[in-house]
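Lecture notes, structural biology module. Today: joint structure prediction for complexes of two components.
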Amino acid sequence: MSDDSSQNDPLMQWVTFRLGEEKYGINVMQVQEVLRVSEIAPVPGAPTYVLGIINLRGNVVTVIDTRNRFGLMSKEQDDATRIVIIETDAHIIGIMVDSVAEVVDLRASEIETAPNVGNEESSKYIQGVTSRDNDLLILVDLNKFLSDEENAELDMF
Amino acid sequence: MSEKELINKPFLEPEKALDSYLSTLLTNISLETLVEINTEAQEERLTLPSVEQTDAPIALEEKEVPPREVAVTSPLAVMPKYAQEEFSALFFKVGHLILAVPLIDLGRTVKFDTKLTKIPQQPIWFMGLKLDQDKKIGVLNMAYLIHGRSKAEQRSYVEQPFKNIILTEDTNWGLACDEILSIKKITPNQVRWRTDRQRRAWLVGTIVEELVVLVDINALVPKHAKNK
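The predicted structure, tokenised, for the full assembly:
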């Protein structure tokens, strides 16, 4: 592909993970590392979407219950469960996922807007969807994963 | 009232019976938990201009008043465009209820044979996305949209999954249903057209002989739903 078309249609890499029966993608540039689940210390009075905090090489990182965030039933952790450490505009946080799958390359033109039948707020962190191997991959905008109020709440931990 | 008078009295009961029957089939939807159903009609409130009281005599001028146009609601005015002549309708089932949709209103039908991709934090009646011919179709639970939440939740969608999906004209949306039955030709006079569609805009009328509701599936899709 020529340089011109690459500029107009940039290639991005996405880390994909599973949650329930669906596969999601997050921008690889925002992923710092992927951890096996270690001890998560609960935080009294924390919102329901916060699982707790972990000590990551001396830094306290809040771990988000992604299933709760996405309105899914909670699930027992198993060998495949991972905490993905991500960097958003506001914080470094961990998101717990059922498993991490792969890294995929996607052109911007391959990403379509996800349908929305709820209110605008309900899934504003869904950046779009794309079809891969006869399946749909849901792309998550990590900068909108938490609202401003929720980010402010995390500052208190 | 004499027996003769009774016999000559217009017999209105079948109309009432039909309304009652429909009301039973289609229980009222509590839309606050559901959707804003498409409706063009909006309530217009008429306000009277304020009149200043005065003791001065009011000069009456003779003006030529144009003849007032009287709006007559003819049956044709409440009928959709397709119903100017014979049209074909697809009969299908949602649970035990048989419904019909004019063929002209639908894109096509597809089998509910693959797993849908669920989008987080969407209303319960949005079942997910179906990838069909490289197109992502938003699939809606027709039982919820027609019957409302309380009745729709009486059914287990795991034990009794939907088998078919009827796509809207633009094929952006699919309405999940059970059986696809048959296609029949309908003449406009076989349908009792609804004159007031401010509520349940999707309910176009009733095919009288079969006592089957004719629906506008495009109007079943919530107005604010986006899939482009």
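Point to remember: Chain A has one domain: 3-154.
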